[in-house]
Amino acid sequence: MKDIKSYIAENKVPNHIAIIMDGNGRWAKLKGKPRVFGHKNGVTAVREVIEGCGEIGVNYLTLYAFSTENWNRPALEVKTLMSLLVSSLKKELKTLQKNNIKLNAIGNINLLPEKVNIELTEVIEKTKNNTALTLTLALSYGSRDEIVNVIRNISKKVVNNQIKIEEINENIINNHLYTFSLPDVDFMIRTSGEKRISNFLLWQLAYAEMYFSDTLWPDFRKENLFEAIIDYQNRERRFGKISEQIEKINE
Ligand code: IPE
Ligand code: IPE
Ligand code: MG
């Protein structure tokens, strides 16, 4: 059988993929193990999708790793997730460098434990000149929190006469989001069968194609990613226009 990757059209690879990595806890439970066992095994899937994106030339990959709401989980689970983050960042730096991957983070990073913050800042700094793939981790991220921040920051500028109210437009809002340096999301994937956004990139997903996979995150592999991308490539993104207008552009 032909390798699934060979069915991907090189000229229609999504520029920015965002993934809600969900189902770690259920994966562990099915195996009779504690939830954190699922988180630990989720790291393999993270490596796989990063590698897969590299192979087909995706420019931006954003991973939802920890939401503002996840702070409300049992303390031990939060603690384990934070330690896992520190050890993964330490371990993966070499691979990021080797593969020319630039690390970026979005979210209320100040809420993260100091150890995580130090490691994160270091890896971001060390990989800042890499150019192949921008890997963004959404950490302590919530879209509503992000929007509140945008409104506060723009309001301050209005009060200080740096921006006039009439000047506020989509571009200015974009430039104040945590994602200011990233393009719009083209393709959003959520694993584990849940069909919701869970406070992820509400503004940025405005015209993203959505894909929901039943696979639990620790089982997600490159092939699952490629299958999702083939599905994406068979869709017509109309952006409000009609089919005939889109065909003309593609001619
Ligand atoms: C996703 O898996 C990882 C995080 C939210 C940190 P979950 O931990 O949500 O796993 P389920 O959804 O309970 O199975
Ligand atoms: C969303 O998953 C957050 C991450 C994947 C980091 P959750 O498991 O926290 O979302 P809900 O609670 O099912 O909506
Ligand atoms: Mg979940």
UniProtKB/TrEMBL annotation:
* Signal peptide residue numbers: none
Q: How is the cofactor bound?
A: Binds 2 magnesium ions per subunit.
Show the active-site residues: 22, 70 (proton acceptor)
Q: Which residues bind Mg(2+)?
A: 22, 209
Q: Which UniProt keywords apply?
A: Magnesium, Metal-binding, Transferase
Does the keyword section mention Signal?
no
The record's annotation in PROSITE patterns points to: UPP_SYNTHASE
Q: Does the keyword Transmembrane helix apply?
A: no
Required co-factor(s) are: Mg(2+)
Example of a GO MF term: transferase activity
Protein family according to the UniProt entry: Belongs to the UPP synthase family.
Q: What NCBIfam families does the entry give?
A: PRK14830.1, uppS
- HAMAP family per UniProt: ISPT
What is the protein's given name?
Isoprenyl transferase
